[in-house]
Amino acid sequence: MSILLDLFLTFCKIGFFTFGGGLAMLSMIEEICVEKKQWISHEDAMTVTAVAESTPGPIAINLATYIGFQMKGTVGAVVSTTAMVLPSLILITVIAACLEGFLTIPVIANAFKGIKLAVGILVLDAALKMIRKMKKQPVTVFFLLIGCVCMLIITVFSLRISVVLLMFSSGALSLLMHCIAQSPKNQEKKGAERHDEERRGDGK
Question: Which residues contact 9 (CB under 8 A, 6 or more apart)?
Fold first, then answer.
């Protein structure tokens, strides 16, 4: 019960104090669930983030569901998902029921201007953390650069290209490169290189 309570309180906190949707929540999830509580590794978090981004549903909720499942099975997944959704549900219900013209209130409108800036910073912080901890392999760096260039071109020229298409294209290209790397010819080459390195090491 203690881990279920911890999951509930943690994801309630993330859901209540984070504005801007799933991408803005990634930074807080990384800080709390990966660095402080060490519920999952950073590599798992990056993998699940990629999967959650390409599957139906908000990315932060999908990530919370995965973490809860890893910690306490199906019950943990339900608790984490509920805790992530509950704060937003309560806030939106209260605002819709009690405050007509909520965003027309000067204080609220000005506050949300600052929140928009903070959301951008949170998203940037999450991206920088992922880049710093990413394994600097040629394939990952290649996809990072290609993705940045594509998104920059789409934004600057206001091109109407589906993000889903970009994700499927990246996945297909990554799968192709993986198949090439795992081909018998490349495996033999890698085996020969390891054998040569071992021989050189024995010679020393």
Answer: 83
Query: Residues near 76 by Cβ (< 8 Å), separated by ≥ 6?
Result: 3, 4, 7, 67, 68, 69, 70
Torsions phi, psi of 148, nearest 5?
A: -65, -45
Q: Find where tokens 């081909």 sit.
A: 183
pTM of the model: 0.63
Each residue's pLDDT tens digit, 28-49: 888 888 889 989 888 888 888 8
| Distance of alpha carbon 68 from alpha carbon 82, whole angstroms | 10
Q: How confident is the model at residue 69, as a pLDDT?
A: 92
Contact 118, 19 (CB under 8 A): yes
Type of residue numbered 200: R
What sign for the dihedral angle of Cα 198, 201, 202, 203? positive
d(CA 4, CA 149): 42
CA distance 83 to 173: 37
